[in-house]
Design goal:
Radius of gyration of chain B: 23 Å
Number of strands of chain A: 0
Number of strands of chain B: 0
Strand content of chain A: under 5%
CATH topology of chain B: Formate dehydrogenase/DMSO reductase fold
Oligomer: heterodimer
Structural class of chain A: mainly alpha
Distance between the termini of chain A: 10 Å
CATH architecture of chain B: Up-down Bundle
Largest sheet of chain B: none
Helix content of chain A: over 70%
Order of helices and strands of chain B: HHHHHHHHHHHHHHH
Largest sheet of chain A: none
Helix content of chain B: 55-70%
Chain lengths: ~400, ~450
């Protein structure tokens, strides 16, 4: 019943670990997809930016969701978070990459957002009203501010957590908790306005007060859906195999189920209220999302993002079996992508569901790069935060 | 056993049960409140005062039935007033009980044990108070059964698209499940009272209520299963009831009501006010009955944290409403917000912001969370703030109709106030009776917190 010594070997990702192979494949696929994206961007910039925004928001959701869940765990405690702490932390350390990947968007604003086109703004009273908020310089300043906040919080959370590995200090624990409390408040505010800026303002005539919360729920779910398969794979080998028990997967599964329900609750509330009000400035947002093929995307979402995972995750056995749970999580990751696609894509351009080949390439371009950085970051630190007070007591080697 | 999802991290914090207690002292200390001979004078005075207030309620209801709802301050355009404000306020207060008993149980939060019983009782009494208002608002409350969809000779059905009919189902389900949950949780303790009661009547009444509980392993096994199932059933109710209450407003197109954030923001507000009420009640009770060993500073600290967190969600709701009223560019929405800020009800609005957003920020400080008088004052302020929130939502949105020719002002009449104060009397009277005749803290669950209660599995 001994705690692990941080200096002992075997706490890091083994060089022959399956993740190292994943990293290599992700890098290669990502590089290929990026080349295709560059070609696509030159051929059809409008289609590229639409596809890029969807892919960007999807991967960004996992990164920022990891930060939020990490902070929630510091505030509330629980062994489930200690065993996946290093996975969550690696997820947060991809945020600088997401900041860099935001730069291409800055060059495509007029392709994406009507408020960035002066000729449209000139003939639209509402856009003129919104101009003090929705204008290109302020948009970029806000984005820089959001990233500054997230990266600063990430930096200190990671630094103190690493410092804790070498010396267990209650002072560090306390600091991590305090920063997480403040960080969660900052997250709530920055994430809300980022959601409004990047996604909701695609249709500036439509406003929904729940939008920020809806995306927060999605990000939390994305983080769990990503962390669970990673943890399931890591749990097959030491050091995680010695500390993760079915209990932790059970807890992670419960929390993922909670987020599935939260997402459904927020989405359905928004839908019911707007459907019932049936106001001309609100209902077109949903009308656009039932036109053409979009209705089927919506039905798919209701099934794959809520009904199926909800029913499956009710089972205790499913939650306690890492393989099965990881499978459900994998489906939810795909559902997250479909959800972002459904939220972001229909606002632009045509009436029906029209797919472009870039829609399939951009997620791999960003995702390949993202996964490469994720595994790289995962390898830089011991996989177990050995001095974490929430860590379950583990068996000696 | 799996590890707690949200287990307490800091062992340095005060314990959930004071040291030095054994099974015997726990049972004794809690059951003594009920089984002692003679009634304490404080209880008699408190109950008498509450009873007088309750009589004020009965008088007001009688006057209402006799003269009609014209005695209230409501009229066009403000046709919802104190009745709905008080309904939402009371229903919201009930939520803490369900959250504590169901969700915190499922999350294995041990500290809930000493507050769950009376928080659940509080839920029941609050729902009873809440239920009065819509029924009385019907005008002819003796026809309240028309709310239920039953085949009738009039060929009349409720409007199923109206959230008001969803409310009927939501609130009645809430009351039923809460009552079941509370009663099932009481059974082992009722058996304890049966076994310890010195009087024949006590043994008889508690014996009937205990439904033949013998405490056998089989009883306990079934009991645990039933209790967990009921907890699972109650969990969605924490969210669903206030969500539907929020739909009462949000599915309309009234500015200030039609907001997509209403469901989560109402649920957070309900939990906020509920915890404030638990604290308002717990602080005097623990003092008066010397229950500081069971309702420790740890409980008060945790409740203050929950209040702080839910209060911030409520503040987020206010912020989003204001931002979107500007951003959306709808002239009615922005007028409504400006009217809240500077209209005729602006003093109430700013008082609400002070009570719900500004003052509770003192809970960030550990010293405030450790001070009982400070916590008591903050909890009262939050109770007031949450009442004002509903008042502002309802009255400000209605008193300026879309057409200026339909504008009007609203204020509660003397009967509005007497019914409100009277419902507090009803609530407190029920609470006093509960404290006197039932164990207000779960005896058997507290026994499991005594050190050494848990049998550890020996590893070979």
């Amino acid at each position: 019943m001994a705690r692990l010594d941080p200096t002992m070997p075997g706490l890091h990702l083994a060089p022959d670990h399956v993740f190292v192979r994943v990293q290599r494949v992700a890098g290669a696929v990502g590089a290929g997809a990026i080349l295709l994206c560059v070609a696509g961007a030159l051929l059809n910039p409008a289609a590229f930016f639409r596809a890029y925004l969807v892919a960007y928001l999807f991967w960004f959701g996992i990164a920022l969701g990891s930060l939020a869940i990490l902070m929630v765990q510091y505030v509330t405690g629980g062994a489930w978070g200690a065993v996946v702490r290093r996975v969550l932390e690696s997820g947060t350390r991809t945020l600088p990459l997401m900041a860099v990947l935001f730069v291409p968007l800055a060059f495509g604003l007029p392709y994406l957002y009507v408020w960035a086109r002066p000729e449209v703004v000139a003939h639209d009273a509402l856009l003129q009203h919104q101009r003090i908020y929705l204008n290109v310089p302020f948009f970029l300043v806000r984005a820089a501010f959001y990233f500054a906040v997230w990266i600063t919080v990430t930096h200190f959370l990671n630094r103190w957590s690493l410092a804790q590995d070498s010396r267990p200090e209650p002072r560090l624990e306390r600091r991590l908790e305090m920063l997480s409390r403040a960080g969660l408040m900052l997250y709530g505010l920055t994430e809300t306005f980022a959601a409004i800026d990047w996604a909701m303002s695609l249709d500036p005539h439509w406003a929904s007060t729940i939008y920020g919360i809806l995306l927060m729920g999605g990000q939390g779910l994305a983080a769990f859906a990503f962390v669970i398969p990673v943890a399931a794979i890591l749990a097959r080998r030491p050091p995680l195999s010695r500390i993760i028990t079915p209990d932790q997967f059970h807890d992670l599964g419960k929390l993922m189920l909670a987020f599935v329900m939260l997402w459904a609750y927020f989405s359905f509330s928004q839908f019911l209220i707007i459907w019932s009000g049936n106001l001309p400035e609100e209902i077109p947002w949903y009308l656009r999302r039932i036109q053409g093929g979009w209705l089927w995307v919506g039905i798919l979402l209701a099934l794959a993002h809520f009904m199926l995972p909800f029913v499956v995750l009710l089972s205790r056995d499913v939650k306690r079996r890492p393989r099965v749970l990881a499978l459900v999580a994998g489906m939810l990751i795909v559902a997250r992508f479909v959800d972002i696609f459904w939220l972001v894509r229909p606002t632009q351009g045509s009436a029906g569901l029209e797919l472009h080949w870039l829609d399939f390439v951009t997620p791999f371009a960003i995702g390949g790069l993202w996964l490469w950085v994720f595994v790289w970051q995962l390898g830089t630190r011991p996989l177990v935060p050995v001095n974490d007070p929430c860590l379950p007591v583990m068996e000696a080697a | 056993m799996s590890t707690p999802v949200l287990e307490a991290r800091r062992d340095s914090r005060p314990p959930v049960i004071a040291p030095g207690h054994t099974f015997e002292t726990v049972t004794d200390r809690i059951s003594r409140v009920v089984l002692r001979r003679g009634t304490p004078r404080g209880w008699i005075v408190g109950f008498a005062l509450s009873f007088c207030l309750m009589m004020v309620l009965f008088y007001s209801v009688a006057a209402l039935l006799f003269r009609g709802i014209g005695i209230w301050g409501i009229n066009q355009p403000v046709e919802w007033g104190f009745d709905i404000v008080n309904f939402v306020w009371w229903i919201g207060i009930g939520h803490a009980g369900t959250l504590i008993s169901a969700i915190l149980l499922l999350l294995k939060q041990e500290w809930r044990t000493s507050i769950n019983r009376f928080a659940e009782a509080m839920t029941l009494f609050a729902v009873a108070c809440a239920g009065l208002y819509p029924v009385l608002h019907l005008g002819r409350p003796w026809l309240a059964y028309w709310l239920f969809p039953y085949p009738n000779t009039m060929g009349m059905w409720p409007q199923f698209r109206s959230p008001l009919i969803w409310d009927v189902f939501a609130v009645s389900t809430y009351l039923t499940v809460s009552l079941m949950f509370w009663f099932v949780g009481l059974i082992p303790d009722l058996a304890t009272l049966r076994d310890r009661s010195p009087s024949r009547i006590g043994r008889g009444v508690y014996g009937i209520l205990a439904m033949g509980w013998r405490g056998s392993a089989k009883h306990w096994h079934r009991y645990e299963t039933a209790y967990l199932l009921l907890a699972g059933l109650s969990t969605p109710l924490v969210v669903s009831v206030h969500t539907i209450v929020s739909f009462d407003f949000a599915v309309s197109v009234v500015p200030g009501w039609h907001a997509t954030i209403f469901p989560p923001y109402f649920v957070a507000g309900a939990i906020y006010s509920g915890f404030a009420m638990v604290m308002t009640l717990a602080i005097p009770i623990r003092k008066f009955y010397n229950l500081e060993d069971f309702l420790t500073m740890r409980h008060l600290d945790n409740m203050a944290r929950v209040m702080l967190a839910t209060g911030l969600i409520v503040a987020y709701g206010y912020m989003m409403e204001t931002f979107m009223a500007w951003y959306g560019g709808n002239p009615y929405e922005s007028f409504m917000i400006l009217n809240r800020f500077g209209g005729p009800y602006a003093p109430q609005y700013w008082l609400l912001i002070t009570c719900n957003v500004v003052i509770p920020q003192v809970l960030w400080f550990r010293r405030v969370r450790a001070s009982i008088p400070a916590l008591f004052v903050v909890s009262l302020i939050v109770n007031l703030g949450m009442w004002l929130e509903r008042y502002i939502i309802i009255v400000v949105s209605l008193h300026r109709d879309f057409l200026p020719s339909s504008w009007g002002m609203y204020s509660g009449s003397i009967y509005d106030w007497s019914m409100f104060v009277g419902s507090i009397g009803l609530f407190l009277s029920l609470l006093f009776l509960f404290i006197r005749y039932l164990p207000m803290i779960s005896i058997f669950e507290m026994r499991t917190l005594v050190p050494g209660a848990e049998v550890k599995e020996e590893t070979p």
